[in-house]
TrEMBL record:
<keyword id="KW-0067">ATP-binding</keyword>
<dbReference type="InterPro" id="IPR050683">
    <property type="entry name" value="Bact_Polysacc_Export_ATP-bd"/>
</dbReference>
<dbReference type="InterPro" id="IPR029439">
    <property type="entry name" value="Wzt_C"/>
</dbReference>
<dbReference type="InterPro" id="IPR015860">
    <property type="entry name" value="ABC_transpr_TagH-like"/>
</dbReference>
<dbReference type="InterPro" id="IPR017871">
    <property type="entry name" value="ABC_transporter-like_CS"/>
</dbReference>
<keyword id="KW-0813">Transport</keyword>
<keyword id="KW-0547">Nucleotide-binding</keyword>
<dbReference type="InterPro" id="IPR003593">
    <property type="entry name" value="AAA+_ATPase"/>
</dbReference>
<comment type="similarity">
    <text>Belongs to the ABC transporter superfamily.</text>
</comment>
<dbReference type="Pfam" id="PF14524">
    <property type="entry name" value="Wzt_C"/>
</dbReference>
<dbReference type="GO" id="GO:0005524">
    <property type="term" value="F:ATP binding"/>
</dbReference>
<dbReference type="Pfam" id="PF00005">
    <property type="entry name" value="ABC_tran"/>
</dbReference>
<protein>
    <submittedName>
        <fullName>ABC transporter ATP-binding protein</fullName>
    </submittedName>
</protein>
<feature type="domain" description="ABC transporter">
    <location>
        <begin position="27"/>
        <end position="256"/>
    </location>
</feature>
<dbReference type="InterPro" id="IPR027417">
    <property type="entry name" value="P-loop_NTPase"/>
</dbReference>
<dbReference type="InterPro" id="IPR003439">
    <property type="entry name" value="ABC_transporter-like_ATP-bd"/>
</dbReference>
Length: 411
């Protein structure tokens, strides 16, 4: 086994599909006839055809994990099916060395009328293992899948989670040279997902992994390089996983506010960040560690007493990461403009690099009953050279206790 050996090489890979079945069949007949005549030159798109993937290139070595990200229909699953040999490309070349294990679709590769145990032997045989070799691993596979009680039951009676358990157990415990994973881990429960990642960490030094997911924490967790696909083409490719994730999230940012509740008495007229970095970005940008200042202006169609203003910050996965404590002091109401305006300031914001959103609500002080709720009232981006996925990058100091002298290292 060679270290840094190239196990997957993709060169100018393209695949097209037709949107209409009848037209697709007609094109297939014409292509078959053309091939018989020896005409194998690449063809341009014909009516109703589109490129599912177009001109994809990459190399993947042993010990590397490539993340494929993009919205639904970007071409991720098509590319994985080409790598697994399920469909043939129209253009380009794929070279794979060694055994290939795949978790591409839920239940794919399983014969539903056979038991889990029989499917283990079938999948092992497809990977090139002898029955004797599978015998030595079957107990570990069953234990990993936690299906010993159901292993002799037909797979067609398994739940989706059980199929994922068995599929990953077979793929991981048989230790293929190349492992293809397409979103199926999202079906498993948290405990099993954590077990899967621990196993991936164990086998990765001897394996090349292609990992497709819409879960950016999972991608950030295991991927050493990344490709962002958009309409079948590469929009970003490289080892800067955090940068690709930011680009992925930027696509879903909405510039308009989204009022999810209002009784009409209060309107959010203006919200903006005051101390943004001066550039031409589509969304406000702040440097890590800067003060966070938001300006807000509300129009009051009806004068309200004892109201509170709540501001919540959400991360890229729309998890609540910060709640800005409201000030219960009375704000001044401008009778001429019928408005309230103020700014909120938080010193040294230590959110990690990435895109965040802000929700705003105006509630009754006593009952917390809402007058107004605005989802995604503001989006902003934190800039930093350090790429991590956790939402906080804390400024700290390390204190060396090894020597008598107290040495401090400012990070």
């Amino acid at each position: 086994m060679k270290e840094n050996e190239v196990l997957v090489k993709v060169e100018h890979l393209s695949k097209k599909f037709c949107k209409d079945l009848k037209t697709s069949l007609w094109y297939g007949v014409k292509d078959l006839y053309s091939n018989v005549l020896g005409n194998t030159q690449p063809r341009n798109l014909r009516p109703k055809e589109f490129w599912a993937v177009k001109d994809i290139n990459f190399e993947l070595r042993r010990g590397e994990c490539l993340g494929l990200i993009g919205h639904n229909g970007a071409g991720k699953s098509t590319l994985l099916k080409i790598l697994n040999g399920l469909i043939n490309p129209d253009e380009g070349k794929v070279t794979i060395k060694g055994r290939v294990g795949a978790l591409i679709e839920l239940g794919a590769g399983f014969n539903p009328i056979l038991s889990g145990r029989e499917n283990i032997y079938n999948n092992g045989a497809i990977l090139g293992f002898t029955r004797k070799e599978i015998d030595t691993k079957v107990a570990a596979i069953i234990d990993f899948a936690e299906l010993r009680e159901f292993i002799d039951m037909p797979v067609q009676n398994y739940s989706s989670g059980m199929k994922v358990r068995l599929g990953f157990a077979v793929a991981a415990q048989l230790e293929p040279d190349v492992l293809l994973i397409d979103e199926v881990l999202a079906v498993g429960d948290l405990g099993f997902v954590l077990k899967c990642f621990k196993t991936i960490d164990t086998i990765l030094p001897n394996t090349a992994i292609v990992f497709v997911s819409h879960s950016m924490p999972m991608v950030s967790r295991i991927c050493s390089q990344i490709i962002l696909l958009e309409n079948g083409t590469t929009q970003f490719q490289g080892k800067e996983v955090g940068k690709a994730i930011d680009l992925y999230y930027n696509r879903f940012i909405q510039n308009e506010t989204n009022v999810v509740f209002t009784d009409g008495s209060i309107i959010l007229e203006d919200i903006r960040i005051l101390n943004v970095v001066k550039n031409n970005s589509e969304i406000p940008q702040l440097a890590w560690g800067n003060d966070f200042e938001i300006y807000l202006k509300f129009k009051l169609n009806e004068v309200k007493n004892n109201i509170i203003f709540i501001i919540v910050i959400y991360d890229k996965e729309q998890r609540e990461v910060a709640y800005i404590k409201y000030n219960e002091e009375q704000l001044t109401y401008n009778e001429f403009n019928k408005c309230i305006e103020f700014k909120v300031k938080h010193y040294r914001l230590e959110l990690s690099k990435g895109v965040y959103s802000v929700d705003v609500s105006v509630n009754k002080l006593e009952t917390k009953e809402p007058y107004l709720r605005v989802k995604g009232a503001l989006n902003f981006q934190i800039l930093n050279n350090y790429d991590i996925y956790p939402p906080f990058l804390l400024s700290s100091e390390f204190i060396d206790l090894t020597n008598e002298n107290d040495k401090r290292y400012n990070l």
